[in-house]
Structure formats: structure tokens, C-alpha cells
């Protein structure tokens, strides 16, 4: 089951890159905020249908959870807006790897300290190595993008 979850996460990541590339193009034509609005409107519609037809009943509602947990919904807005802007300027690959670098760095802090109600998973040499490798990958991808722009 772990392999299936990892593969689904990889597919989700691939879909985010496709979304970033499409939204970058759309944002350059109709505007950043209209592109973001479309993303959230369609997402809200699709999610509403999924809730209506597939979500099992839960004893707790959104009104019953600690209010700080609702703040997580706000983090999607800056992500979409940043990606629409960034993809237009630095390309899909650099923007995506930069996002993943930020996700990895923050997730390691959340794991290490057990923030936001998550189980603590101590920082290790292997995790540090992963951050370094991804940072190096970001540098290489960015450098190749800059070199390609100079040739063009």
C-alpha cells in the first residue's frame, strides 16, 4: 500500500506541474487573478460533487474543528498565484523544483518538531542529504535555463 501511495503522490506532483504550465500560459493571456479564480472555481465545483457523491459521513464538521486547522485552506491561494507568475518568468521546471524545495524544507521542520499536530520524525543525515541534493538540482536546472535563454 505504501508504494501505491507514493505513486499517487508522484502522479499528483506531475499533475501540479501540468497545472502550473497551463495556468502560466492562461495567466499571461487573461491575467493572474482570473487564472487563479478559474482554478479555484472549477476545483470548488468538482470537490463539491465529490463530497456530494462520495464523502462518507463524519461525526465532526468543519465548524467543530479547531479554527487554526481551517487556515490551511488559505495556503492554496498564494501557491496558485505565485506559480502563475513564476512559470511565466522562470519556466515550469525551475518554478516546480523551487516549490518542491520549499515543500521539502518545511516538511522536514514540521516532521522534526511535530508541528501542527503531526508525529515527530527526527531530522537525520539522510534527510539532510535529500535537501542538499534537491538544492543542487535546483541550481543545475536554473543554470541550464539561464544558459538556454542566452543561446536563444
What's the topology here?
Elements: H1 2-30, H2 32-54, H3 76-90, H4 92-113, H5 125-151
Structure description:
- It is a single chain.
- The longest helix is centred in the first third of the chain and has 29 residues, at 2-30.
- The model has no long low-confidence stretch (mean pLDDT 94).
- The chain has 5 helices and no strands.
- Helix 1 (2-30) runs antiparallel to helix 2 (32-54), helix 2 (32-54) crosses helix 3 (76-90) and helix 3 packs antiparallel against helix 4.
- It is an all-alpha fold.
- It is 76% helix and 0% strand.
- The chain crosses the membrane at residues 6-24, 36-54, 66-87, 94-116, 128-147.
- InterPro entries: YdcZ.
- It comes from Leclercia pneumoniae.
- Keywords: Membrane, Transmembrane, Transmembrane helix.
- This is DMT family transporter.
Keywords:
152 residues; mainly alpha; 5 helices; 76% helix; globular
Overall 3D form = globular
Q: Roughly how many Å is the radius of gyration?
A: 18 Å
Total strands: 0
End-to-end distance? 46 Å
Listing every helix as H and every strand as E from the N terminus to the C terminus, the arrangement reads: HHHHH
In short:
The chain has 152 residues and is mostly helical.
Amino acid at each position: 500500500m505504501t508504494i501505491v501511495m507514493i505513486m499517487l503522490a508522484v502522479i499528483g506532483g506531475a499533475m501540479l506541474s501540468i497545472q502550473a504550465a497551463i495556468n502560466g500560459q492562461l495567466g499571461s493571456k487573461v491575467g493572474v487573478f482570473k487564472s487563479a479564480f478559474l482554478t479555484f472555481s472549477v476545483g470548488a465545483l468538482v470537490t463539491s460533487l465529490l463530497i456530494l457523491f462520495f464523502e462518507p459521513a463524519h461525526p465532526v464538521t468543519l465548524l467543530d474543528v479547531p479554527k487554526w486547522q481551517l487556515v490551511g485552506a488559505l495556503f492554496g491561494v498564494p501557491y496558485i498565484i505565485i506559480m502563475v507568475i513564476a512559470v511565466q518568468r522562470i519556466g515550469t521546471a525551475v518554478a516546480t523544483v523551487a516549490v518542491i524545495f520549499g515543500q521539502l524544507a518545511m516538511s522536514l521542520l514540521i516532521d522534526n518538531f511535530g508541528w501542527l499536530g503531526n508525529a515527530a520524525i527526527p531530522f537525520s543525515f539522510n534527510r539532510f542529504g535529500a535537501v542538499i541534493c534537491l538544492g543542487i538540482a535546483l541550481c543545475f536546472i536554473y543554470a541550464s535555463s539561464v544558459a538556454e535563454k542566452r543561446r536563444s
